[in-house]
Write a structure and sequence with these properties.
By secondary structure, chain A is α+β, with helices and mostly antiparallel strands. Chain A has helices spanning 34-44, 188-193, 264-268, 283-298, and strands at 2-6, 12-14, 52-56, 61-64, 68-74, 85-88, 93-95, 104-109, 143-144, 171-177, 197-203, 207-211, 225-226, 231-234, 240-243, 250-251, 255-259, 275-280. In chain B, strands 5-12-9-10-7-6-13 form a seven-stranded mixed barrel. Chain B has a four-stranded antiparallel beta sheet with strand order 1-2-4-3, covered by helices on one side. Chain B has helices at residues 22-37, 64-72, 99-106, 110-118; strands spanning 3-6, 11-15, 43-49, 52-57, 87-93, 121-127, 134-137, 152-155, 159-163, 166-169, 174-176, 179-184, 204-209. Chain B is α+β, with helices and mostly antiparallel strands. Classes of the chains: A alpha+beta (301), B alpha+beta (211).
Chain lengths: 301, 211
């Protein structure tokens, strides 16, 4: 078992999420930085759908009452050698501490975190207050069972630097125009792409509010439509909201463009004050970006 | 003509229209059923809402051009009919915090607002936003008021709200900007139930005032 000694800022159990339930108002959820989470599972030899611990801004302190193999990836922490599998001896504690640069750090434990599957996933869903073992973020005193989700031996080498995504801005984020392109002036998308957007403090797993002081896009509310993770909504006052993995499943603000799947992890690491620039791509280029990043996972370094 | 547009690199949004209209919802449900009966290669799941259908696909199996072509085969041929299910009673206590304000804005008494809201059958157009949230229409013009200027951070589950020509029920506690006029004890979302949401688009319901 793993005992939570200190919960950290906002620590939850996540896996690859529960897709396909949006018609019930349930967001897909899962690790916000799917790439760092997948690497963490890969490093310890877990199955890709093993659940792990997602830390935000300040990580938890955990005590292990068994020998374990763990890997820490994502936003940088000073407390432990990250992006590599490490042994954690029975009786010892893992204190993650402050995360910087980056916002979210993942702790995978060989075997996975064994909490009940709810609606196809072990992920905590904040909007629905279910999943993640407790229907809430982790709290001091919680005890986590280690599962059996082992796929292969842990990797010996650290994960190569060349096969990681940057956890610190400024980032260039690939977007595909639409779907509500016609709710905007003809040059709106180009103007958005020419603007450096600043991340505000209003960020969570549901979405990120961005500031664009030099750009004001004009638009109006539309009839409620289904929305996806990565959708860049424009509010009537010209503000931008980028939806993330725990997004509302429908919305009434027009979506000018949508962030490609390969780049959603970048936004998971964004902190207030970071800068994001959007680059417009077509679906072929977005697919290429996806294959590049997912290819890093498919072939062990 | 349907509009088919990319919603990122894993989904296409099919927009059949832009108004709250039972005929458009019927077409959305018809298309949804047609895709379920004849699933195109790579289609993973669909999400219906009002006059549009979001189609998530597996980019390793299909591409947007191919999926759009398949979807467009149903344009003009899809049969649209609202399923004729029973009208579900939603027992509602009309004691919402915004009822007096809504009455003021509509030049009605609170009882008049309740009479307008409860005195008819509604069609469920969408379950979305948050788990189990049920969007219904159409609200009579007499009590149509805009969304609140600044949303509440916490709206209790079961709250009955109105905004524009829509009325909705909150499935879980969530933030929200609709004017709250009442509350129901009916459970709209249960992660242990199958399906987890009480209502689906095309269902009919009626608010029944209770003391």
């Amino acid at each position: 078992m793993i005992e939570v000694i200190d919960r950290g800022r906002w620590t939850t159990i996540q896996d690859r999420g529960r897709s396909g339930l949006e018609r019930f108002g349930i967001p897909p959820g899962g690790a916000a930085d799917w790439f760092a989470a997948s690497v963490a599972n890969e490093l310890v030899g877990n199955e890709p759908d093993a659940a792990l611990i997602e830390c935000t801004a300040t990580g938890p302190t955990l005590r292990f009452d068994v020998d374990a193999v763990a890997a820490v990836t994502g936003g940088r922490v000073a407390s432990i050698g990250d992006w590599q599998a490490v042994r954690v001896a029975r009786g010892s504690s893992l204190a993650i501490g402050t995360i910087a640069p980056g916002l979210r750090t993942y702790i995978a434990v060989r075997g996975g975190i064994d909490v009940p599957v709810v609606l196809g996933s072990r992920s905590f869903c904040q909007l629905g207050s279910f999943g993640g073992g407790f229907g809430r973020p982790l709290a001091a005193g919680d005890r986590l069972r280690i599962g059996q989700g082992i796929g292969h031996e842990p990797l010996i080498e650290p994960w190569p630097l060349s096969h990681r995504l940057p956890v610190q801005g400024p980032w260039e984020v690939h977007v595909i125009g639409g779907p509500q392109t016609d709710a905007f002036a003809g040059d709106a998308l180009e103007r958005l792409a020419a603007t450096a957007c600043r991340v505000t403090p209003a960020i969570d797993r549901m979405g990120l509010r961005l500031e664009t002081p030099t750009l004001r896009l004009r638009t109006q509310e539309i009839l409620t439509v289904p929305v996806t993770a990565g959708a860049i909504q424009v509010t009537p006052s010209g503000g931008l909201i980028v939806l993330h993995v725990d997004h509302q499943t429908s919305g009434g603000y027009p979506v000018i463009a949508t962030v490609g799947s390969a780049d959603l992890p970048l936004l998971a690491q964004a902190r207030p004050g970071d800068t994001v620039r959007f680059r417009i791509v077509d679906s072929i280029e977005a697919a290429r970006a996806w294959r590049r990043v997912s290819g890093w996972l498919a072939h062990d370094p | 003509m349907w509009q088919v547009a990319p919603a990122g690199d894993r989904a296409l949004l099919v927009t059949l229209g832009r108004t709250i209209d039972p005929g458009l919802l019927a077409q959305v449900l018809g298309l949804d059923q047609a895709l379920k009966d004849n699933p195109p290669a790579g289609l993973r799941s669909t999400v219906p809402a009002y006059a549009s259908l979001l189609c998530h696909y597996d980019a390793d199996v299909t591409d947007p051009a191919r999926l759009e072509e398949t979807i467009r085969q149903f344009e003009g041929t899809v049969k649209g009919a609202i399923p004729s299910g029973p009208v579900v009673d939603v027992p509602t206590r009309y004691d919402g915090p915004d009822l007096p304000e809504v009455a003021l804005k509509t030049n009605l008494t609170p009882a008049g607002v309740i009479e307008q809201h409860a005195g008819r059958e509604y069609l469920v157009y969408c379950v979305g936003f948050a788990p189990g949230f049920t969007y219904c229409g159409a609200l009579p013009e007499e009590i149509a008021v805009p969304r609140m200027a600044s949303p509440r951070l916490r709206v209790p589950a079961g709250s009955v709200g109105i905004a524009g020509r829509q009325t909705g029920i909150y499935g879980v506690e969530s933030p929200g900007g609709w004017n709250l006029i009442g509350r129901t004890a009916l459970r709209l979302f249960d992660p242990a139930a199958d399906p987890p949401a009480r209502f689906k688009p095309g269902d009919r319901l009626r608010f029944v005032p209770i003391p």
